Amino acid sequence: MKYAFLIITGLILSSCATIVNDANVPVSLSFSDGSSGTCQLSNKRVSLSVKIPGQPLIRRSDDPLRFNCETNSGKKGFGSIPSSIESGKLAGSVIFWDLGITDSITDKHRTYPTSFVIPVN
Fold first, then answer.
1. What is the SS3 assignment for 17?
2. CA distance linking residue 93 with residue 22, whole number of Å
3. Strands 76-81 and 46-52, bridge-based pairing
4. How far is CA 106 from CA 12, 43, 52, 61, 115, in A?
5. Which residues have C-beta within 8 Å of that of residue 63, sequence separation ≥ 6?
6. pLDDT of residue 23
7. Per-residue model confidence as pLDDT tens digits over 64-120
8. DSSP per-residue codes, 49-63
9. Cα–Cα distance between 32 and 119 in angstroms, integer?
10. Radius of gyration in angstroms for the set of CA atoms belonging to the chain, rounded to a whole number
């Protein structure tokens, strides 16, 4: 009985189902008028300066990816890109013992769209 208790306890403590996603997700960005330029991108986990068009790696986060951009011709665009939950992977984590706690701390269950067109005036 004592050994069965130790085995069951060991299995419970060793079974966790955290999501094994990369910390960063590629997002293809372009301007609505097809021009080139630069953008300041930020969320609570990263702040970047990137050239547009491009495909920077963005750190996953539960808050929106804010952008402040300027084309080479001086047009400006600003706004945010919402993040979403990868529900299938989070559901798998919740079924097991960690209940998604680890993933909610690391935000690895969140993602941004694979491509986004930044509107400019």
1. coil
2. 16
3. unpaired
4. 22, 14, 28, 8, 23
5. 43, 44, 83
6. 86
7. 999 999 999 999 999 999 998 876 554 454 445 445 545 556 677 788 999 999 999
8. EEEESB--EEE--SS
9. 5
10. 20
- Strand, helix or coil for residue 100: coil
86 and 63 in contact (C-beta within 8 Å)?
no
**Closest by Cα among 31, 30, 54, 27 to 43:** 27
Dist CA 71 CA 66 (whole Å): 17
pTM over 0.90: no
Which residues are registered as beta bridge partners of 25? 58
Residue with tokens 């400006």: 76
Which amino acid would we find at residue 67?
F
Could you tell me what percent of the chain has a pLDDT over 90? 52
Site of tokens 């952008």? 67
Place of tokens 């993040």: 83
